[in-house]
From TrEMBL:
It comes from Agromyces mediolanus (Corynebacterium mediolanum). GO terms for biological process: carbohydrate derivative metabolic process. Transmembrane segments: none annotated. Residues 34-168 form the SIS domain. InterPro entries: GlmS/AgaS_SIS, GlmS/FrlB_SIS, SIS_dom, SIS_dom_sf. Keywords: Repeat. This is SIS domain-containing protein. Coiled coil: none annotated. Gene3D superfamilies: Glucose-6-phosphate isomerase like protein, domain 1. It comes from the Bacteria. GO terms for molecular function: carbohydrate derivative binding.
Length: 303
């Protein structure tokens, strides 16, 4: 593969620009106090739904909200959501606001359960379907491969739960400009791991690598990795931990000859680093993650 420090082909120009803008968009989201107030209040029992990337961010939000004592919070893929469980509200997360499964789910809840949409496209049909719309048009994207909308929505969620994001934003700025290790760009395989709220980040990192560079990637809760998946760890492969690793895991991975990758960055900022590796791998292969194979900006199903 190509050295990531040398000039690369122009493919993925939108992804590159949108990826680099994340410190700015996170700061904007952290300051949206009126929009954060539209999200479910502490104590409410809620579900958060989305598809693909949005589902993974829903998982992270749900874990953070429960861990913070804010109320019971479930996360579902919109196509597999169990929302008739007496929830006080359902949060629908979607960049495009046109995804068929999300629209159908929200339509079915109208007049029965409060719905809140967190949406990138302010002109999308979902805006008029939900009871309350939290709009993030400044984080919308042209690249098919999402980067900033997902993390900006999560920044909004984290700020709404009372987190100070100054450290995460500073870490993201560092992640955007740090030199990439060529060994990561050249690696044969990646397994991403997380604990608690970072499990969603691990799933999202794996998805980005598959979408952008057609790479072999997997993702698991960290404590599950030794229950089978560690069998694929080997020299030339990477096991990437988001956040603090379980005791002994780094040594177990090292014993396989695989690289154990971790960081002291805020885990959301470490996801930015993983996005950069995905982009570099795509460019090294001559791929364009702005228009990846078999994918489009939104999944709209024919009736």
């Amino acid at each position: 593969m190509t050295d990531p420090t040398t000039p690369q082909p122009a493919g993925g120009a939108h992804m590159a620009a949108e990826l680099a803008s994340q410190p700015e968009t996170w700061a904007r989201a952290a300051g949206l106090r009126a929009e954060q107030a539209l999200l479910p209040a502490a104590g409410a029992r809620i579900a958060v739904v989305g598809c693909g990337t949005s589902w993974f961010m829903a998982q992270s939000y749900a874990a953070l909200r429960e861990r913070g004592g804010q109320g019971e919070t479930d996360a579902f893929a919109a196509s597999e959501a169990f929302v008739d469980r007496g929830y006080d509200a359902v949060v629908a997360l979607t960049r495009s606001g046109t995804t068929t499964e999300v629209l159908e789910l929200v339509e079915g809840l109208r007049g029965r359960v409060r719905t809140i949409g967190v949406i990138g496209d302010a002109d999308s049909p979902l805006v008029s379907l939900v009871d309350d719309a939290v709009l993030l048009p400044f984080a919308d994207e042209q690249s098919v491969v999402q980067t900033r909308f997902a993390t900006t929505a999560l920044a909004l969620f984290r700020a709404s739960l009372g987190e100070d994001l100054d450290g995460a934003i500073a870490d993201a700025s560092a992640a955007v400009s740090a030199e990439l290790d060529p060994a990561l760009v050249d690696a044969e395989q990646f397994s991403y791991l997380g604990r608690g709220w970072t499990v969603g980040l691990a799933h999202e990192a794996a998805l980005k690598m598959r979408e952008a560079s057609q790479s072999w990637t997997e993702s698991y809760p960290s404590m599950e990795y030794r229950h089978g998946p560690i069998a694929i760890a080997a020299p030339g492969r990477v096991t990437w931990q988001f956040g603090t690793a379980p005791e002994g895991l780094a040594a177990d991975v090292a014993a396989t000859g695989a690289r154990f990758e971790t960081s002291t960055l805020d885990p959301m900022a470490d996801l930015v680093r993983a996005q950069r590796v995905a982009l570099a791998r795509a460019r090294a292969k001559g791929l364009d993650p702005d228009s990846p194979r078999n994918l489009s900006r939104s999944v709209i199903l024919n009736p």
